[in-house]
Amino acid sequence: MKRYIVFIKQVPASTRVSIDPVTHALVRAGAKSRINPYDLHAVRAAVELRERLGGEVVAVTMGPPQAEAALREAMTAGADRAVLLSDRAFAGSDTWGTGAVLAAAVRKIGDGDVLLFGKQAVDGDTAQVGPGVAARLGLPQVTELLRFDEIRDGQLTVEKCCDNGTQQVRVSMPCVLTVTKEANEVSAPTLRQWERAQGLPLEVWGIGDLDLQPSDTGFAGSPTRVVATEAAATKGRAKILGSAEELANLIRTLS
Amino acid sequence: MSEFPLKLDAQRCLQCGVCIDACGYGALTMNEYPEIDPEACRLCGSCAEACPAGALVLSAVERERDTQAQGIWVLAESRPDGTSDPVTAELLGEARRLAETAGESVSALLVGPSEAGDRCRELFEQGADRVYLAPCADAEVPEENRWATVVAAVAARYRPSILLIGATRFGRGVAARVAASLGTGLTADCTRLSIDPQSGNLLQQRPAFGGNLLATIVTPDHRPQMASVRPGVMKAIAPRSGFVGEITLCEVPAAGPSAVEIVASRLNETRGSSIADARIVVGGGRGMQCAANMALLQELADVLGGSVAGSRAAVEAGWIGFENQVGQTGRSIAPDLYIACGISGQIQHTAGLTGAGTIVAINNDPAAPIFSVADYGIVGDVTDVLPRLIAALRA
């Protein structure tokens, strides 16, 4: 049976944040979370593959126990089952540490024919985890999928974004895809879809369930360290000019 | 269950409570001694930094630093049509500035072309002391997977201390794959780089949370320290005419059966000058009101010899092409002069302007955030101000 594994991330509902001037702590506009919007398109792409080739769609996320909500969203959008990777040992992971956990999860699930990621997550914007997992598993990657041109057993022909245009590429399975918002339409879920998702199986795995050492992931296993965060600086107020003519004179002196 | 990386040394603790206030996540509570809630703790280290007694210790991670690695490398990127990408010159310029502080040499890694003489000369002029040339005919039409294999193999053999890659679509795909193959850290989409004078580490600054925050990231122990860098942010150096450095010919791993095959490329023909290279850029946003008014921007750009760009709102309205979008999800630009017309100045847009010189804003809302980013402003309707500005410039 074919298997499509979709990796999703729970992200803050708003990216509006500020720094508390006294404590220097991150102040988020609200504590609400949602599924990363690109990931819903990855789920939809996986469902398209299932519709054409048969098989199952497995949604996977790494996060705190509350991340179950994002997995239920993925199942509402069409995934058949879900795995939540949750352990204190995963805390503080950078993209490398996260990739270690996700790759180990793929091995435990028993491999997939197509692994799908959203193009990037809207909180970190790195676009690194998908290619990182592909490299760890030795799978070919196709980033920024725009659409499927041809879905055949064992081989996909797809359209992808490239710098200054698009490319059509052919990739053999198993492979890793990262999916853009242009790849498909995501429709609002029906009540029936929501009800279906509540009853689907969801497993929770910790580090003990995976072939992974604590030093491979989390803070200890992550090569990068965040050493400072600051609010983006602004210049202060612009000098307001009285007329277009005054601006024209200024531009002349600049150029 | 593994040990939590943040620990309290109760012998040293003064029970002063400074750490409780320092924690931004409410993860510490005082119960005679501070107690750590591992579910809430984000391992940010604020408490350890605040503690006057050194009683809170973050990470007993003992890792050996790779001290053998040396040199600052830049991946010389090729565009889908095989020509050199302008981001390479920007990265070489930045590498030269870093090299001065770090006391290192600058090298470019060139993958692909068999006729490499012209490309090598170009790289020497742009700042490279040495070119590592990895010839492989099958990589001439750049493909992420193949390039990543070649770059990882050459970097593993010659072990640079720093490896910079342009954060183009292609570069980001390659960089993430290379970093995972080499088992090293990678910071995405950096907008500022410097060398920490104490540790010698590369300080990598990048926008996070949609540009609202700037995070500084280091890779303390692993080498190479990898960063992808936003195109249009760093400045190229003046060409070192006639400078000739050394060329090291690298062995390249044989290509396996290609798992990803590029069937066809459809590249946009760039009309007029690109906003990435333009010295003067005129940008339009939602406040331009309609597609017809965008002609005013073109007229102004023509008078000034500049290019026209748009905010996401203008692109989504269909007034201007996606390739001319400036901002977090578009391009970064670094013109000497940027004129923002009818652009409110959301962080999403201004994130693409960090390298711009003088910024002028024209907007009818005096409270628009663009006036906090701009150097000069005119409060007024663009349909009124722009014709008068164009006329005054022509006079």
Describe this structure in words.
The complex is a heterodimer of chains A (255) and B (395). Chain A has 255 residues and is of the alpha/beta class. Chain A is 29% helix and 31% strand. Chain B is α/β, with parallel strands linked by helices and 395 residues long. Helix content of chain B is 26%, strand content 25%. The chains are: A alpha/beta (255), B alpha/beta (395). Chains A and B meet through strand 3, helix 3, helix 4, strand 9 and strand 10 of A and helix 5, helix 6, strand 9, strand 11 and strand 12 of B.
- Report the C-alpha radius of gyration of chain B, rounded: 25 Å
| Global mean pLDDT of chain B | 88
Share of residues in strands of chain A: 25-35%
Largest sheet of chain A: 9 strands, mixed
Largest sheet of chain B: 7 strands, parallel
Tertiary shape of chain A: globular
H/E topology pattern of chain A: EEEEEHEHEHEHEEEEHEHEEH
List keywords for this structure.
heterodimer; A: 255 residues; alpha/beta; nine-stranded mixed beta sheet; two-stranded antiparallel ribbon; 15 strands; globular; B: 395 residues; seven-stranded parallel beta sheet; five-stranded parallel beta sheet; 11 helices; 26% helix; 25% strand
Compose a concise summary of this entry.
The complex is a heterodimer of chains A (255) and B (395). Chain A is an alpha/beta fold and 255 residues long. In chain A, strands 11-10-9-12-8-1-6-7-13 form a 9-stranded mixed sheet, with helices on both faces. In chain A, strands 2-5 form a two-stranded antiparallel sheet.
